[in-house]
Amino acid sequence: MRKNIPLTIESITDADEQECRIVSAKQIQSILRDIAESGTNAALYYNTKREFIMTTILDLDEDGLWVEPGHSSTENHHIGESRKITLVSSHNQVKMQFFVNNASLVTYDKQPALFLPMPTSIYRFQRREYFRLSLSTAEHLRCLINVKKARGESLEENAVPLEASVVEVEIPAADISGGGIGLVCMEGDFDLVPGETYTDCQIDLPNIGLINVSITIKNLIPISKHKSGKMLQRAGCEFRDIDGQTAGKLQRFITDKQRLMAMNSLTA
Known about the structure:
The chain is α+β, with helices and mostly antiparallel strands. The chain is 20% helix and 43% strand.
């Protein structure tokens, strides 16, 4: 079953530089040739606003590749003026992405086309599925995060409600992986907003050390109702743009926990 590959620009992390970057000229040309011959769709992004056109690769040689131009002369003019072009496509159901510094409006097979210089590198984004480690309350793993405290309600008629204030809170973790963390919080205590990214968060990994991360709230899922009547929620969070050192610490923490769990099961 073919999956739909979203042709959106991927942010390049330090880990991507090591794991996803292809620099072999022969391999780059082979991948682009396959994309061209299959007629696979591509998105060409240009200018600082990341405007884009949908296109296909028409042909290529050692110097560069010809792609279909935009529908309007204005689009093509702006593309020609852009100093950074990003092309996103897919190859064998895996997202591919590369950058070049310019594009020229030319003629290919007697028709208008855009010519892009051959990229010196291309990124192949085959994201791994991360093992998610469940944590007990005894683990005492916490995420230190700056959030907005829920607004208090005024009892006075026509009173102006108090503005939410930013507070630093420690939120217990229910699980963690190389790609994100699940946090447990009480409904109404503070505002965790799905889709919002929180920077400068800190997690102290026992026996490993402190890591600083940015997290994006992906979802809020009710778990159970507390005796106070409030709902206990799990906030599913994704790590954003973590560097190689942080990723290594996370993997060591998870691997150590897995090893300890395996030893305990053998001695039980």
